Amino acid sequence: MTSPHDHADHGPTPAPGSLRCPECGEPVRLVPPRDWSLDGFAPRPDASHLDGTPLCPVPGPNGSQPADPIGVPARLTMWQAVRQTWLVHPGWTVADHLAWLDGEGYDTGSLTGDPAEVVGRWLAEHRRTAPLSLPANDPRVYVVAGGDMVAVFDNPTAPAPTSP
Length: 164
Description:
By secondary structure, this protein is an alpha+beta fold. Helix content is 22%, strand content 16%.
């Protein structure tokens, strides 16, 4: 069976988030082909070339079949990248984030304003709105409310209150 790695270079590298036919390198859309000569014999494929034709044929278990599209994963936006690195490295400083962004090829110079200030504001806002993770030894209180009675426990396995 043919795989994308068995083919010679088909020109320019596809843009992130795009799909291509692995045989001819043409762009692909996730729309079934307009004409499908195998109706009744084989299911209509999920993808087609931009002109509506099936993707190029490749050998399959039952003879030729349309190729499966290949793609380049979409790149995270700069804000998504900062957010993801903050989740993985919550102790990083603004300088750490900027160094990582630059190392990954993000153009921090395209930010409106001073990149350190912009990333610092993003981090501050994310820290303000992110879910709080509490340490394991943090005392918690569990409340059971029902009717005219409220019971408070210091552990989740405490027995439920009973009515008098």
